[in-house]
Amino acid sequence: MVVPSLKLQDLIEEIRGAKTQAQEREVIQKECAHIRASFRDGDPLHRHRQLAKLLYVHMLGYPAHFGQMECLKLIASPRFTDKRVGYLGAMLLLDERQDAHLLITNSIKNDLSQGIQAVQGLALCTLSTVGSAEMCWDLATEVEKLLLQPGSYVRKKAVLTAVHMIRKVPELSNIFLPPCAQLLHERHHGILLGTITLITELCERSPAALKHFRKVVPQLVQILRTLVMTGYSTEHSISGVSDPFLQVQILRLLRILGRNHEESSETMNDLLAQVATNTDTSRNAGNAVLFETVLTIMDTRSAAGLRVSSPCLSPCGPTHQSSPTLARYVALTSLLRMVQSDHSAVQRHRPTVVECLREPDASLSRRALELSLALVNSSNVRAMTQELQSFLESCPPDLRADCASGILLAAERFAPTKRWHIDTILRVLTTAGTHVRDDAVANLTQLIGGAQELHAYSVRRLYSALAEDISQQPLVQVAAWCIGEYGDLLLEGSCEETEPLQVKEEEVLALLEKVLQSHMSLPATRGYALTALMKLSTRLRGDNNDRCPFTMDTPIFHLLRAAILEKMPLVERGGTQDEEAKESKEAQLSEAALVSTEPPASKLLDLLDLLDSSSGAAQPPPPLEPSPGGTLGHLLDLPCASPAPASVPNLRVFEREGLQLNLSFVRPPETPALLLITVTAVNTSGADVTHFVCQAAVPKSCQLQLQAPSGDTVPAQGGLPVTQLLRIFNPNKAPLRLKLRLTYHHLGQSVQEIFEVNNLPAETWQ
């Protein structure tokens, strides 16, 4: 017995009544078989009903691709019931990736010229949903004609379709310029809102359109003034705010038109002041309007007094404790965007910003932290750092890493003295050592090593901190390094800058042994402690050398121990230095090494030569080769360096609001098919770039391996860059292309950029 096909309502009830996933699949499979059979039979009267059931099945996640051609048949049908379901199916089952969507172009063109508003609306909705660039080119003229039709129903949908077309094909801008000026006189909410959106898209994509629409700034100002002062469309008011959606869209358009244009900015100054003053911020709708107003004030050439004295930025305004949380968040975000252009004006609100650090709302305290870090300068670094360190002690765990990194960067940039700098880093390591960045240990050891007058002070401070707590691994690593380097100063007991501290050799060794045996110590921490114990074996004067069992009991080692375990020389820090000066310095050092008659290792060879000399006089050693694989390298069994690979020029592939992305290339000579790309992100703006993620893709003929980045925060003002290594294996030496996706947070906004790099040097793949 053949089971009859179900109606749509019965199908929905039966699917909802299924008790298991298997029962649901069984019902759907049976009904899909009936639908296929009906499509094959070509029943024109019930085709739209069968397609409606198939669309419901598609909405549940089951395959429905076999209904695509039926959509085209229904769209071509003269019956409205067929067209309605056919267009709905086209919007759900078709997209630009399938060639079938191009087959409905003629049907849409015919329906747009019919004059039946309901059919025209269906065609416009479908075009704005699945319209490809080819369809937009073919149908732009028909849509332009509908923009000035008498019926508001069709005009509203035509405006939205035009927005889609401009986003797909910006070259169509000239077609839609003339109708927009007339549509600005509309009183209909939907048409006016769509027109403002269309003009915004045109101005963002066409300089000619931007110049053209600057003439309508007075008209836009008048529309917005009517909304604010008298109410433009009472039926669209929300929480007492007159049509906030339209207000926000007009403010965005004014921001684009007034950017870098004095006359347009001057025209809107008074209006922006009125909006900022009269908007009710007790509701979310008012906060949205206020936020867009502030952004417009910041981005246009508004009067300086308007920026500084805007009520939304006043300490007695939304940033005050009695104001709603969202209003204060808007103010903090606006101040964060303003800090780069007018730093002194934002400094006026510093006390209120610091108060917002204590807010229980996580988003508010995070925004206050970002702004507080941006406000630090050489004149307030002591006070601001003290406030931030106090906040660090009690801040939520998810903010500790950002706060600790920000304090370290601020101290590095604006430290008044080296001792203050060391004290600041030590306090951060003591409070939140597990949350600091990976380079904190190297930076502090570099700082201490370069401050010879503070060696005794530093080693005493670190020893005391280590004795109190060995759980903070970065602090333990720095302390172990410092004790190993300057342990003799710790034992001398003479330091005028600290309280008298009598330390015995046994206590120092016991503390390092405690670090070695602790289950909390990382492998790197144990390495620091082992090195410190070995170095102390050359600095201790008592009988405790037996407690350093990590020395080699050989005559050679005893002879060379003092030279090998001597204090580390000061290493020059790498950074964003001038490349030409760096290359010049390297060239000078190379020349000096070549003309030197007694290399630094010659004394070491003299000592070794004494072991093989049978007479009292030693033969002079042969001159050392300048290469790393010379006599000293062979003696210590060091690996010889391979020849330097051919240099490939660096490439800058991205730059936006101070964030730069540079690529450097290396092709190892031993593996010609391998390309190593180092992605370097540098931030020259005044605010940190956080949550930075870089993803890459290569052609299928290549293999890509992404190494872990050095961090996810790119410090402001040219701080330590974030690097990431890409390993690309290109065995066929095919032309190389990269597709990069960047996601990050900057200046209070979440940014995502996707772009292709097609101009890679030929040396990277040939």
TrEMBL record:
Could you tell me the keywords of this UniProt record?
A: Cytoplasmic vesicle, Golgi apparatus, Membrane, Protein transport, Transport
Which GO CC terms are listed, alphabetically?
Answer: AP-1 adaptor complex
Q: Which organism is it from?
A: Ursus maritimus
Q: Which SMART domains match?
A: Alpha_adaptinC2
The UniProt family comment states:
Belongs to the adaptor complexes large subunit family.
Q: What is this protein called?
A: AP-1 complex subunit gamma
Q: Which gene encodes it?
A: AP1G2
Topology within the bilayer: Peripheral membrane protein
Domain of life of the native organism: Eukaryota
